[in-house]
């Protein structure tokens, strides 16, 4: 049920996939740095504003430790996405998801209808699981992951990702024999029937999450087993390790709003003096600085800070917004400025994080207004058909926060063009920033869970144009 809904919703959600694609909380102030309000230095006599690297960013928000212990009662998920329900009864609602191979500490066995040929158990920290709907129960934690690697929750990329580079490349249910692969290659070229070992011929734009390499003994051919348990030829995919893009945690090292983010391309860094704009260096794409002044020179608008000035239309400026009246005074909320393509996270009236986004292109704009985070996934697979670009499928889209039907904030590992509109309705965020938001926001996803759904605690999402 949930998997069907996720795919249906993604019709609005996913970024345009193009041929050229770029490759517990820590308190503010605990990490020292020499970086103050900008990252500019002198290179070959010219000033250069640099974009930041990942540094120790993944440490700023820590994932909960999954330590179920060694004694008691344990439930090991054997469905790819095993559900946690809100009640031990017929027609329960899904309240969470546990990925295959993860282990939950369970409570008492409980009576209830709706778990045909199985038994209900209390899950931790809440909810119920059914043994016939995805869980093996035992007195010791299982080490069997059923071929599914654990998500790397301490990294901004929970899996190793790849792009399929061969048109109509076969994806197999298991590693094919030499003869089966020959048949699949003929089918790929439309010269013969598709053998049963082929789950699909991938025509369109496909991005896969990979588990491990495996070698066919007969001839030494190398395949990747995907996270979802399929097999692809190593030569049919290209690994994706995108350049790191990230925002700024406000209140650290002098960073505060407004902040100007360079977008699109490298830009000229200028000095405004005596009514003239003189080039003094370069501002790297996704470089940023605290805005100190905004002015026009000969009819051209500029914003400036300590490193220098940049033309106003070459930066996106994140500014402080007024808290919506429906958001509690101490509530967590996220403001997405569609006009500026910026995102700022708040705790009450205090801005705590700022970054760039890529929202829906023309005809796919997200709705404006105030919403609540309804579901959170470490990762979820999205696919749909675009009337221009054709079919696409992106496995395990990371750090996904659904807030209104199929609309979501999520990490995007298939491009680094943040600051520019390009998606099918969802809001693309750099994976580093998406992970930060995932662990900062409410509702909290319990340790060992892959997703949580429809909890009373929430984070508000406020879209303005």
Describe this entry's structure for a reader.
The protein has 465 residues and is mostly beta strands. It is built from three helices and 35 strands. It has four domains: 177 residues, L,D-transpeptidase catalytic domain-like; 89 residues, SH3 type barrels (Roll), CATH 2.30.30; 66 residues, SH3 type barrels (Roll), CATH 2.30.30; 81 residues, SH3 type barrels. The chain has an 18-stranded mixed beta sheet that branches. Strands 8-7-6-3-9 form a five-stranded antiparallel beta sheet, with no helix packed on it. Strands 1-2-20-19 form a four-stranded mixed beta sheet, with no helix packed on it. A hairpin with an 8-residue loop joins strand 4 and strand 5. It starts with a helix and ends with a strand. The N terminus is likely disordered.
Jot down its keywords.
disordered N terminus; 4 domains; L,D-transpeptidase catalytic domain-like; SH3 type barrels; globular; five-stranded antiparallel β-sheet; 3 helices; single chain; 465 residues; mainly beta; 18-stranded mixed β-sheet
Which overall shape is indicated by the principal axes computed on the Cα atoms?
Answer: globular
Classified in CATH, the superfamily of the largest domain is L,D-transpeptidase catalytic domain-like
What are the segments in which pLDDT stays under 50 over at least 5 consecutive residues?
Answer: 1-12, 14-35
| Gyration radius over CA | 24 Å
Q: What's a concise summary of this model?
A:
The protein is mainly beta.
Layout of helices and strands, plus pairs?
Blueprint: H1 2-9, E1 40-43, E2 46-49, E3 73-77, E4 81-85, E5 94-99, E6 103-110, E7 120-123, E8 128-130, E9 135-138, E10 160-164, E11 169-172, H2 178-188, E12 198-202, E13 205-215, E14 222-226, E15 231-233, E16 237-240, E17 248-249, E18 259-262, E19 267-273, E20 276-283, E21 288-290, E22 293-297, E23 300-305, E24 308-311, E25 315-318, E26 332-337, E27 342-347, E28 350-358, E29 369-372, E30 375-386, E31 390-404, E32 407-411, E33 427-429, H3 431-440, E34 451-453, E35 460-464
Parallel strand pairs: 2-20, 13-31, 26-35, 32-33
Antiparallel strand pairs: 1-2, 3-6, 3-9, 4-5, 5-34, 6-7, 7-8, 10-13, 10-16, 11-12, 13-14, 14-15, 17-28, 18-21, 18-25, 19-20, 22-23, 23-24, 26-27, 27-28, 28-33, 29-35, 30-31, 30-34, 31-32
